[in-house]
Amino acid sequence: MFILTTVVDRIRVPAHKLQVNTLTALHNEIDLKYPNRVLMNFGLVICRYGDCLKITNGACVPGDGGSHHECLFRLVVFRPFVEEVCVGKIVKSTPEGIQVSLGGFYHDIFIPAYWMLRPSRYNDKLGLWVWSPD
């Protein structure tokens, strides 16, 4: 469910943060940029993991007062495996599908009606999806 992935990115440290230790400033910028963002082919980024593994010397770009560093760092990513079972709570049930919460960090999972286990149907009286084997 959770994996560590290694990322290389050019991180900009703004001019007003150049007085701070370079590693601390880079960690702060990574922590601002990546958490709660979905990276294509990786998953939902939860947080940075540990220190930067590699940092280049800062480069200046004309017209920009900040420094730019190539950084190699690791991120904790939420990426469920195919057919992995995740336990959650049903938050809302409608004829269109159900909304599920995985607890502490992910509340917006929507499972549309066409992905429901077959044979299941929506029961208007109960307001729930019911699996009814024939």
TrEMBL record:
An example Gene Ontology CC term for this record: RNA polymerase III complex
Domain spans labelled RNA polymerase III subunit Rpc25: 84-133
Similarity section: Belongs to the eukaryotic RPB7/RPC8 RNA polymerase subunit family.
Keywords: DNA-directed RNA polymerase, Transcription
Keyword Nucleus (UniProt): no
GO biological process: transcription initiation at RNA polymerase III promoter
Subcellular location as annotated: Nucleus
Superkingdom field: Eukaryota
The name this protein goes by in its record: RNA polymerase III subunit Rpc25 domain-containing protein
Pfam families xref list: RNA_pol_Rbc25
Alphabetized InterPro entries for the sequence: NA-bd_OB-fold, RNA_pol_III_Rbc25, RNA_pol_Rpb7-like_N_sf, Rpb7-like
